[in-house]
Amino acid sequence: QVQLVESGGGLVQAGDSLRLSCAASGRTFSSYAMGWFRQAPGKEREFVAAINWSGRYTYYTDSVKGRFTVSRDNAKNTVYLQMNSLKPEDTAVYYCAAAPKNYGLEYSPSYDYWGQGTQVTVSS
Fold it and tell me: Which of 1, 32, 33, 60: disulfide with 98, CB 3.0–4.6 Å?
């Protein structure tokens, strides 16, 4: 089992930055690829970013490329999502998730474990 706890969400203005953290406990964190997803009210959950187990490879959805950065610290069992130049359309509940394999990371079924989510609200 892997337990994931997100933190760092909040209410910000357009153009501001936030850094989300996802702390993991349980099985070996470094053996999992990690992903970030988000779900806005009335919308499907969507992929945001992912990082492979070593941190060497990262993946982003087009709408956040150049603004968001995913990273991980395996010594701290933590994955981060640095979000810059936030827009109102980034408003959503953000979830981190852990995947046992380093492919298909843009798809929710690839992930075995999920956090409870953290709310990000961007005002215009």
Answer: 32
Find how far residue 68's CA is from the centre of its chain: 10
Cβ contact 46:25 at 8 Å: no
Token pair belonging to 11: 């209410």
CA–CA gap between residue 76 and residue 56 (Å, rounded): 17
Sign of CA dihedral 89, 93, 94, 98: negative
CA–CA gap between residue 85 and residue 46 (Å, rounded): 19
- List, for residues 48-92, the tens digit of each pLDDT value: 999 999 999 999 999 999 999 999 999 999 999 999 999 999 999
Q: What is the DSSP string of 92-111?
A: EEEEEEEESSSS-TTSGGG-
Alpha carbon distance 16, 11 (integer Å): 10
At 9 the three-state DSSP class reads coil
- Burial zone of 68 (CB within 10 Å; 0-12 exposed, 13-18 middle, 19+ buried): buried
